[in-house]
Amino acid sequence: MMNLMVGLLICLGTELVTSSFLILVVLLKFKNRGWKLFLGAISFLNRQYLQGAGNNLNSLELQFNNIQKEHLESFFTSHLTYLNCQIQGGFPTSIIEVDDLALDSQSQVERQTTQSQKEMASQFNLIQIELEKSRSLQQATLESTADGILVVDSQGYIAGYNRKFIQMWEIPEYLLEIRNYKQTLKIVLDQLKYPRDYLASIRELHAHPDRQIHDAIAFKDGRIFERYSQSQWAAGEIVGRVWSFRDITAYKLAEAKISHQALHDLLTDLPNRVLFQERLEETLRQSSNNNEKLAVCFLDLDRFKTINDTLGHAIGDQLLQNVAQRITQCLREGDTIARWGGDEFTILLPKIKDKKDAAIVQERIIAALKPPFNIENHRLHISSSIGVALYPADGEDGETLIKHADTALYSAKSKGRNRYLFYNSDITLQTTELFVLENSLYYALEKQEFTIHYQPQVNITTGKITKMEALLRWQHPELGLISPAKFIPLAEETGLIVAIGEWVLRTACAQTKYWQKLLGLPSLSIAVNLSARQFQQINLVEMVQQVLKETGLAPECLELEVTESTAMQNMEFTKDILTELHQMGVSISIDDFGTGYSSLSYLKNFPIHTLKIDRSFVRDLTTSTHDAAITTAIIALAHGLNLAVVAEGVETEEQHNLLRVLNCELMQGYLFSRAVSVEDATRLLKHYKSRRINSKSCLVA
Question: What is the overall mean pLDDT for the chain?
Fold first, then answer.
């Protein structure tokens, strides 16, 4: 039966011969079985065509001649036996003697032959049509696939390919027409990023031809192909190999992007806390094995929320990006910086020798953040507080080191910010106290635990109390009177300072208006400090207007004090706010002058009325020539700009006399009065008024 299929397939490409006739007769005689064999032959030929062997029909014939040859021989033997029996049983022994019978038989045979030939020709036409359809379908399927297909025979020659393969590999078609796999391979290797790996996989397949391969290959131009290959089998033997290639560049890029985003911060593109912790754990293992030290640093930007609240998150985001770039430039190769969240960053410093190595990096960071950031016409100043924990002294696991670095950071912020601190056990106790204070602070305003103390400013020439300064105090029910230096930073950090500051302003203005009426002091003024967080409020001007309206205090009787660092955080915003307040009639003073920025250009741009000399200069005024020189310069500068100048922290007669010689008329300090409660302040003002009636030149004591 198999040889019958071979005969049919061979006849498709050759002239009709007598043997073909005999095969067709057999096909016609055994119609049902013959068609099954024919369809099987067609299916087999189609498979051979896809595998690259369809063009070699001679090879196909040889393969079939070796399969079940005895079936055809048996058929012809049985057929000849049948004819023999017919002749012996009824045919004349001599055809010449029975001419009529012979002629009839001959005519019958001729008619049968002609009819058979017609039927055979018709069947051949059908066979050719079906075969052409099959080949066309297979070719269309091959060309319509998204994969590049290459077929290589066992001798290393290219037996087939599709157009997609040419496009993907950018191989000139004339090279493929040569059908030499080795020459094509040279072109392929020139495009690959890792040609040696590719060759190694080819050698592995040559050594084990029955193996499959499924992997990805990278190109020099960034493309990535998925590669799949399996052996081509025929008659139980490997006759070649089929390769398919799929371009997965877009998929891999998307996969890499998703993976990157999962481990990196979207805003700064720094590692996120997940990746930081992974690197920390890996570095800890290496440090333990190599007996090395490392440092974990926790960094927080000082008063960053003020900028966010004032200028919006878009400006804040740009500031974070710029800060991340500056910090990164301060690190060593192999160090890691990650965005922990918000305005917090963590830094991993492996392979340090001691504290000094870690301190050098922290000092570089603090110095790098000192110059202003220019963002969308805003000059922004920002500083950072940093806590540092060392391995193994401060902890032997990642969680403990991060916790202790955070504790040290908290302590650095409480000590004035813009600094770094190394962790020690004492810090934990301090942090616990701060934690208690922070929790209590949320309820202090509601429970009316805040009070205001007042300290007078005196004109030493006239003896007149020109102004009272309102100073916030917190009377904790368990911890007693708490210093503003402890709770004000906490209030700013938590945002509670906004509500607390508004309460201070309203209370102080109402008290001043009361003193003006009660004591007949219509020109008495009140000075109120504005924290950085308060000053950056968008509705600050509206809030001040509302307070003045509610209390009935005239705007010219209110002075708002801001520090240099607060004013310089955003000069454009500061100028706009101060101008609006000035137009209302409110006075502006610069507190702690001389301790902030060296640039004095803001003095001519801001509507400022008063400069306050910081107490640090006044304290050593009589013993330090440097402090005396600075104080002299500040007083001269203020007079030159037609500004009032106030010396803070005056405690001794020597300081008072020297300031008077330097033409500083306005003073404030313990020499005149401490900051006292509202009751004591009222008595002080009454006493001052009665003494002033008797002697205008007397100082208030």
Answer: 82
Nearest to 251 by CA among 227, 224, 228: 224
pLDDT at res. 308: 85
Q: CA 659 to CA 245: how far, in whole Å?
A: 88
Residue with tokens 């916030």: 472
Q: Please tell me the predicted confidence (pLDDT) of residue 359.
A: 96
C-alpha to C-alpha distance for 37 and 237, rounded to whole angstroms = 23
| Token digits of residue 590 | 């610069």
DSSP string, 255-278: HHHHHHHHHB-TTT--B-HHHHHH
Q: What is the pLDDT of residue 495?
A: 85
pLDDT of the residue at 699: 40
Model pLDDT, residue 75: 40
Separation between Cα atoms, residue 268 and residue 324, nearest integer Å: 7
Q: Are 647 and 668 in contact (CB under 8 A)?
A: yes
CB-neighbour burial class of residue 105 (10 A; exposed 0-12, middle 13-18, buried 19+):
middle
CB-CB contact of 241 with 232 (8 Å): yes
* DSSP label of 220: T
pLDDT at residue 175, rounded to an integer: 78
* Closest of 330, 334, 323, 324 to residue 294, by C-alpha: 334
Distance of alpha carbon 509 from alpha carbon 56, whole angstroms:
106
Task: Name the helix (H) or strand (E) containing 183.
Answer: helix 181-191
Structure tokens of 458? 């005196």
Query: Whole-angstrom Cα distance, residue 38 to residue 303?
Result: 88
pLDDT score at 356: 93
Cα(16)–Cα(352) distance, integer angstroms: 92
- Please choose, from the candidates 563, 301, 304, the residue with its C-alpha nearest in 3D space to the C-alpha of residue 413: 301
Per-residue pLDDT, 272: 95
Spatial CA neighbour of 56 closest among 15, 13, 20, 18: 13
Q: Which residues pair with 646 in a beta bridge?
A: 612, 666
User: For residue range 449-468, what is the model confidence (pLDDT) as tens digits?
Assistant: 999 999 999 999 888 899 99
**Listed residue (11, 551, 534) closest to 309, CA to CA:** 534
pLDDT for the residue 581: 95
- Buried-exposed string 543-569: b where 16+ CB fall within 10 A, e elsewhere: bbbebbeebebbeebbbbbbbbbbbbb
**Amino acid 596: pLDDT:** 62
Helix (H, G, I), strand (E, B) or coil at 355: helix
Helices (H) and strands (E) in the chain, counts: 28, 21
The DSSP element (H or E) to which 481 belongs, if any, is strand 480-482
| CA–CA distance, 301 with 421 (Å, rounded to integer) | 15
Q: Find, among 313, 323, 191, the residue nearest to 245 by Cα.
A: 191
What is the helix (H) or strand (E) element at residue 510, kind and residue range? helix 497-519
**In which residue ranges of the chain is pLDDT below 70?**
1-113, 179-181, 429-430, 596-599, 690-701
**Strand intervals (E) in 542-649:** 558-563, 587-593, 610-613, 644-648
Residues near 225 by beta carbon (within 8 Å), at least 6 away in sequence: 168, 216, 217, 219, 245, 246, 247, 248
Would you state the torsion angle of the CA atoms of residues 652, 654, 660, 661, taken in this order, to the nearest 10 degrees? -170
At residue 415, the pLDDT reads 80
Gap between the Cα atoms of 439 and 451, Å rounded: 19
Rg (CA), the chain: 49
Q: What is the DSSP string of 623-663?
A: T-HHHHHHHHHHHHHHHHTT-EEEEE---SHHHHHHHHHTT
CA 8 to chain centre: 68
